[in-house]
Amino acid sequence: MRRYGRYFWALVLILAGSWLALPFFRTQTQKWLNSPQLGNLNILSTTADFSLVYPIKPKQWLTFALNEESPQLRIITNAHIQQADANALNPNWDYAVRYELLDRNQTRIKSGLYHLHSQLSVYKDGQGQAIYGNYYPSKGIIPLDGRFILLKLQGLQKVAFLRISFEAINPAILETAVRVYVPANVSEHQLATSWLRMSQEQKTKLAESSIHPEFLLSEEEKANLLKHQWQALGPVGIEGTNYQTRTLYTQNDKNLVPVNQDALLVASGLQADAQHYGAIPLPEHGGLVTLTLKALDGTALKSPVPLGLQWFGRDPGQRWQHNAVWTNGTDHLDYQLDGGLLVIRPASPVIVNAYLTTATEPKHDITDALLSVKTYMASVGVDFGILHYQQQPAALRVDVRRLMTATARPPQGQVSYQLSDANQHIIGSGHLSAVAQPSLFDRPDTMAEGNNVSEPSSYFFYLPAQATQLRLQSDTPGWLVNAYNQPYGHTKWQRVPEDAYIANTAYNDTRDQQLAWFPLRAINDENLSLQQAVQWISGQYHPPEDDPEMAAGHYLWQDYLPQGQVAGRYVLTDYTGDEPRADALAGVYCALATNQDITVKLDAFKGLRSISPELIFLRGTATPFSAEFFVNQQKVAAINAMGRQGVLHIPEMALGYPQLRLQTNGGGQWLMNYQAHCPGQRYLKRRVFALDPDAALDFTVQHAAEDELYSARLYSPNNTVERSQIKVDIQALNTLAPKAVLSANWTYQNRLYDIRPLPSKSMPVLYAQGQTLGNGERFSIPINSDLPAGTYRIRMALAKGAPGYITLSQTKAGEHQQRRFYRETALEAP
Fold first, then answer.
1. CA distance 498 to 506
2. Of 129, 303, 581, 695, which is least packed with CB atoms within 10 Å of its CB?
3. Residues with Cβ < 8 Å from 426, sequence gap 6 or more?
C-alpha cells in the first residue's frame, strides 16, 4: 500500500505542474499560430480570428449541400499566392470563381462567373514589424484579402446543391480558399436562451453589427441579431479525398497600422510619368505658370528628370513646346502662358504641382483634380435601361475601354450587345470593340504600375421605341463599359469663348449646363458592385489633335450664302494666320506703301497668268483727294474722289514681280490684294450677312455622310459688351437613307451658342462710311457621320443680344477636286 502511495503523489505533482505550465504552452502555441510568412518571421502578440476554409485548384469543383429553403448564400474567397510573390510591386491579383446551382437531381438551375480583384494588406504592429492581414500557420502560402459574393436564391425552385470552381487569370495565383455561409435557423423558442448561453466574446462579436455595445442592447435588438446569423457549410464528400481543409487566421487588432498609410503614401499633386502625361488647364487670360516636381513620396528628386512641355491655345495656330531638365538644384520652373492646356511629359514618375500668378490674383495652386469615370467589367454582363419620351427614339452612348498591362498582350475579343423589348425578346445585336492602345492621359484609379487603360471608343445608338434594355457582355476579361443617355430634343448649350478654357472660373460654376450626355447607372449596379465588377477610371482633359493636312495647307475652303433676300456687307478683319495659300490671296489684302517705288510679288491660284487687283483706301477724313497707280513706271489707273473709304480697280496685269508706285495726296491707309509674302499688316475681306431678331438665316449644305465641320463667325457692332445667343437648328431636307441605329459619332441638331464679344479694334465695314464692327467671335457647327448623306438646312436665329452680321464657311482637310473657269486673254506686259 505504501508503494502505491508514492505513485499517487507523483501523479499529483505531474498534474499540478502541467496545470501551472498550461498558460505558458497556450501562449507559445498561439504565437506560433499567429506567425505570418514574412522574411523576418516575426512573432506577434496580437490576437486573430480563425475560420475553416476549403482550397480549390484550377478546374477543381467543390459541392455544398443546401437547405432548399435558403433565401441566399454568402461566399467568401481568399486567393493564394507564393511567399516569393508577396513583395511584387503593384501586382494585378485577378481571378474568377464559377458557380452552379443544382436541384436534388443534379440538374443545373443557374450558373455564372464572378471576376474578382484582390490585394494583399500588410500592417505594422506596436513594435513596427510588418504582418499580413490573413495568414496560415504553415509556411509558403500567402492568402490575399477576402472577396465577398452574395447569391440571392429567391425565385429559384428547390436549390439543393452549390458547385464552385476556380479559374486563374493571373498565373501567380495558385488557388483560392472558399467559405460558404447560409442564414442560420433560430426558432422562436430558442431566442430567449441562446443569448444567455453565449460567452462574452461571442456576444461582443455578434454586437459588432449594431451601433450599441452588447450591454446596451434591448431584448428586441438581441433577438434581431440572433435571427440574422450566418452558419458555415462544409463541402460534400470525404476530407482528404474530395476536399482539403485549412485554418485561416485573420488579424482583428484595431491598433494595427496599414503599411500603405505609412510607407506607400503618394504625395499630393498630379502624378505623371513617361506613359501617363499630366494635363494642367489654364484660365482664359493665363499668367505666370510655376511648376514644381518631387518624388512620389513627396521628397526631393535625387536624379535629374528630363521633361517635355506642350501648350495648346484656343486656336490651331496657338501652340508652344519646350524641353527642360529638373535637377537637384532646381527649385521651380516659370513660364508665361496664355489660357489653354499645358501638357507635361516627364521621363520618370514624379508628382507635379502647378501654380498661377496673375495681375489680379496672387500665386495659387491650379493643379487640377483627376476626373472620375465609373465603368463596369463587361465579362460579368452589364444591363442598361432605355427610357423613351412619349415613344420617341432614344439616344444612348456606350464607351468601351480595355484594361492592359505593359508585359502582356491584351486578349482578343469584343463586347457583344443585345437590344431587347419589354417582353425580353431580342430585337437587335452586334459587337463593339476598342483600340488596344494605352491612353496617355487616363489610367485605372488603382495607379498600379504597368496597368493601363485604352482611350474610350464611343458608340452612339439611335433606338426605336420598342427597345427597352441594352445588355453588354464580353467573353474575355479586361473589357470595360459605361453608358450615357440624352434627353429627347436636347439642345447643346455652348459658351463662347469660355468652353475653350476648361479652367475658366465662371465656366466651372455653370459646368453642369454644358453636359450633353448624362451618366447612366446599370440596372444590375448593386450586383456588379458585389461581384467586384466596378472599375473607376481617373481621367484628364485631353489636348486638341491638329490635322496634319490642315497644317500643311492641304484643304478646301468654301463660303456659303444664305437663302432668300438678305442684306449683306463686306468687312475687313485682321488676318492672323500663317502665310496664305496662293489661291486665297484674292481675299487677303496687304498694306501698300504710298509715294514710293516698291517691288512686290503677285501670285494667284494655279492656271492664272493675270489678275485684276483692288486698291482699298481707308481715310480719317472725307476731303477730296487724287491718286495715281503706276506699274513698271507706267500709269495704269487714276482716281479723283472724296470720302473716308472706297475702291480703285486696277486693270488686268501679269503675275510676277512688278515695280509699283501709288502716288496720292489723300493720306490714309491703302490695301491691295494678291500680294504674296506681305511685309506689313494683312486683312481678310469677308462678305457678311445681317442677323437680327426678326428674321433667321437659312444656309443649304450638302452632307457626305462623314464628319464635317462648319465654321460660323458673329460680328457685333463695335464696343458691344452684352452677350448674344444664337440658336442653330440642323434639319434634313433630302437624305438618301434613314438615320442609322448605331454610329461612331453624334450630331447635335439643336444648338444654342452663348457668345461674349471680346475686346478688339474697330474693323471697317466697306461701302458704309464710318460703320465699324468688332473682329468677330468664331464658333463651330459639326455635322457628323451619324447623319445620312443628303441636303441639310442650317438655320441661325438671334435669340438674344444686339443685331450683327454672320458668316458660314467650311474647311475640308486634304486634296479635293475643284472646277474653275478661265478666260483666255492676249496680255502684253506694259
1. 8
2. 303
3. 418, 419, 420
* Preceding peptide of 497 cis, ω within 30°: yes
What residues are paired with 454 via a beta bridge?
438
Mind giving me the DSSP string for 366-430?
Answer: --PPPEEEEEEEGGG-EEEE---STT--EEEEEEEEEEEESSSPPPP--EEEEEE-TT--EEEEE
3-state secondary structure of 549: helix
Would you say 422 and 468 are in contact if contact means Cβ atoms under 8 Å apart? yes
Mean pLDDT (the chain, rounded):
83
Give the pairing type, strands 555-559 and 804-813.
antiparallel
Helix (H) or strand (E) holding 462: strand 457-463
In angstroms, the Cα distances linking 351 to 196, 203, 259, 572 are 58, 48, 21, 48
Q: Each residue of 476-535: pLDDT tens digit?
A: 888 999 999 999 989 999 999 988 887 644 333 334 445 789 999 999 998 888 777 888
Question: 3-state DSSP call for residue 216?
Answer: helix
Q: What is the DSSP letter of 361?
A: S
Amino acid at 508: N
Report the Cα 433 to chain-centroid distance in Å: 17
Query: Rounded CA gap, 222 and 612, in Å?
Result: 100
> How far apart, in whole angstroms, are the C-alpha atoms of residue 680 and residue 682?
6
Identify which of 60, 64, 59, 56 has the alpha carbon closest to the alpha carbon of residue 235: 64
Per DSSP bridges, beta strands 451-453 and 394-405 are antiparallel
Model confidence at 157, in pLDDT bands (50, 70, 90)?
Answer: confident
pLDDT in tens, 660-692: 999 999 899 999 999 998 888 899 999 999 999
pLDDT tens-digit series, residues 375-400: 999 998 999 999 999 999 999 999 99
Question: 10 Å Cβ neighbour count for 388?
Answer: 15
Q: How far apart are the first and last CA of the chain?
A: 154
Alpha carbon distance 109, 158 (integer Å) = 9
pTM of this prediction? 0.69
Q: Which residues contact 218 (CB under 8 A, 6 or more apart)?
A: none
CB 602 within 8 A of CB 659: no
Residues 456 and 398: beta-carbon distance below 8 Å: no
| Cell 469615370 belongs to residue | 373
Query: Strands of 61-65's sheet, edge to edge?
Result: 61-65, 161-168, 93-102, 108-118
Sign of the dihedral through C-alpha 502, 505, 509, 513? negative
C-alpha grid cell for residue 435? 483600340
645 Cβ partners below 8 Å, 6+ apart? 616, 617, 618, 619, 764, 766, 767, 769
Instruction: Compute the distance between CA of residue 255 and CA of residue 819 in angstroms, rounded to an integer.
Output: 82
CB 791 within 8 A of CB 714: no
Question: Which residue has cell 456588379?
Answer: 528
Task: Supply 170's cell numbers.
Answer: 493571373
Q: State the average pLDDT over residues 152-180.
A: 87
Least confident window among 414-423, 722-731, 763-772: 763-772
CA distances from 769 to 320, 674, 689, 765 (A): 41, 25, 18, 8
In angstroms and rounded to an integer, the radius of gyration of the C-alpha atoms of the chain is 38
pLDDT value at residue 59: 85
CB–CB of 455/437 below 8 Å?
Answer: yes
Distance CA 497, CA 776 (A): 11
Instruction: Give the residue among 510, 522, 485 at the shortest CA–CA distance from 374.
Output: 522
Alpha carbons within 13 angstroms on the beta-carbon side of residue 397 total 17
Return the residue matching grid coordinates 460680328. Answer: 715
Q: What sign for the dihedral angle of Cα 60, 66, 70, 76?
A: negative
pLDDT confidence bin for 93, thresholds 50/70/90? confident
Longest distance between any two alpha carbons in the chain, whole Å: 156
